Each structure stands twice: as C-alpha cells, then as structure tokens.
Amino acid sequence: MSENTSPNTTSNNRSKSAGVQLPTDQELVLKVIPMPGDCNANGDIFGGWVMANVDLAGAVVPARYAGGRMATVAVNEFVFKQPVRVGDILSFFSKLTRIGRTSITVKVEVYAERLGTQGEYAKVTEALLTYVAIDENGQPRVVPRKLA
Prior knowledge:
Blueprint: E1 27-32, H1 47-66, E2 70-80, E3 89-99, E4 103-113, E5 121-133
Antiparallel strand pairs: 1-3, 2-5, 3-4, 4-5
C-alpha cells in the first residue's frame, strides 16, 4: 500500500499514515470493531466484511433524509486504502453528495484507530454509493425535497 499523502497528515515523528484528522463535514453513523472471525487467510479483515459495513453506514443518512426505506442500487466507487486489522476501532462517516428524483448518492469514509494507538486515525476505506428510495411494495418512490 502507498503511504497516505493527505494534507491532514501530521508532520511530526509519527508515521505518515497516523494522525489523520477525522472529517468535520460528515456525520459519524457507525462504529465497529472487527473480530478474528472476520479475517481472511492473510490475517487482515475480509474486504467483503468492510463492504457490508460501508453499505450499512451509507444507508443511514439517505434513509433519514428520504424518511423511509432505501435500497442499494449502485456501488459507484470503492477504494481500500489500507488493511483493516483485528481490534481496529472503525469509524464510518457519511455525507450526501447528490439527491436525485428517487435516488441519493452518499460518500462514506472509514477511519481506523489501531489497537495500541487510540486517538490516532488512519483512513482505510472510502466509497461512493447510490441508494434508491422504495415504498412498502419495494418500488421506487420520489425523494421529498427539503429546504436547506
């Protein structure tokens, strides 16, 4: 993996992947700790486990905005920046990026507090997902327009 070159990275003696600032323009929607049963053969957390949690986290803000059920319609982008390890405390942040007639697109960023270095964060994953608002019959419904 390449080193994190984010402008939010500190310049002291810590590694370049440590010390990333958490976003202030997004909502914390989920915190979870992966366990040994979530590992792949390399000892890292399965990418699919991370993807499932990103999907859960990504649906929170659109469901609140649309006032009801949402279904995942697309994973537009998904980038694994660093491995996730057993014992990491993962924080999932979400932000609306586009509101369509029946769909909402969301950016999700995942930050890890590594075991033994609590208080320091590394960005491990980012994704862009689109959800469609659905009615009680599972059919698309119009997303209500809200004034800012």
